[in-house]
Amino acid sequence: MKFVKIPGGSFMMGSNSGGSNEKPVHRVTLKPFMMQTTEVTQAQWKALMEKNTSRFKGNNLPVERVFWNDCQEFIKKLNQRYPGKGYRLPTEAEWEYACQAGTTTKYYSGNSESDLKRVAWYDGNSGNKTHPVGKRRPNVWGLYDMHGNVWEWCEDWYHYNYNGAPTNGSAWLSPSGAYRILRGGSWNYGAYSCRSAVRDYSNPSYRGSNFGFRLVRSP
Hints:
Helix content: 10-25%
CATH superfamily: paralog of FGE (formylglycine-generating enzyme)
Shape: globular
Strand order of the largest sheet: 7-6-5-8
Strand content: 15-25%
Number of strands: 9
Largest sheet: 4 strands, mixed
Distance between the termini: 15 Å
Order of helices and strands: EEEEHHHHEEEEE
Number of helices: 4
């Protein structure tokens, strides 16, 4: 697994031109962290887990059809094998900050669908399947496939808007949450759903063939 250091800083989270769950736009300030350059692959998954339930099989394809608790079991085993690294899912704020990489456009590559096509596998170019990780253009921080390929699980519970959201980059948790956050869009979603600010969510026990994840760890 390859990780890059994401520098600390502030950014404006959310979008005034998106859905109601992307509002209000608010400033978030984060400390540095390390993020995996690609989505977790099936080869990486199989090195620790007994079953690969992915629909589309291939060692360098992103693992998918994993529910949120599957990800936590993988992370637990990874931390046991490599103690002190602090592997975990990204918070929603960390994910959006890392995806934007200092940009303010719809995608880290620009605002148009042609800009998206250069960096993402989505319903306009995927051929209705996932693709090997790291084959499209990365953002300036060296992160691949932040747009498209598979939706990526985050640590947070889903809230219907950003009123009361943390402003320090921490996970927004809830004692009575029902859904976990997914980010980034996927191979079978349109360009609008692949924007940096788009938020999706799912029951944490649902396995979708467009649900995957990537990791963060301590710097």
